[in-house]
Structures are given as structure tokens and as C-alpha cells.
Fold:
Amino acid sequence: EAEAAAAAEADEARLAEEAAAQKALEEELARERAAQAEAEAKALREAHEREMDCLREASALKIQCFWRQCCARKAYAIKLARAWAAYHKEQAEASAAAAEEAEAARLEQEA
Structure:
């Protein structure tokens, strides 16, 4: 009976050790999973931040491109307006010269 009690006590001790070892393994596994989840979360945050950086850069480039196009259009419009002004000035000068010649010719005919 003493041997049976000792064997039962040894079994209980062995089961307690196995339970403690199992609990330690489960805790270690839980820590590893938590660390992995944290690493994945960090990677996702970093990827999101890179994506946002790319979007900000793309947005800045779009704005920059838009303003460059606006400036190019504005420069073209100014150039075109100056060309039209020069053309109209030449036409006005030509008309004035033609009017002066016509007036001079009329005065000559009257004289």
C-alpha cells in the first residue's frame, strides 16, 4: 500500500510537472504569437506610411504639374496677346499711313 501511495504520489508529481511544462510552452507560444502579431502590425503600419508618403508625393507632383501647365498656358496666352497687339498696331499704323497717303493724294488733286 505504501508503494502504491508512493507510485500515486510520483504520478501526481509527474503530472504536475507535465502540466507546468505544458503551461510554460503555452505561455511561450502566446508570447511568440504576440510578438509575431506586433511585428505584423508594425509592418502594416510601415507599409501604410509608405503608401501615404507615395500618395502625398503623387499629389504634390500633380499640383506641381498643374501649376507648370497653368504657367505654360499663361505664358502662351501672354505671347499670343502680345502678337495680336503687335498685329493690330501694325494694322492701325498701315491704316493711318494709307489714310495719310489718301489725304495727301486728295490734297494734290485739289491743288
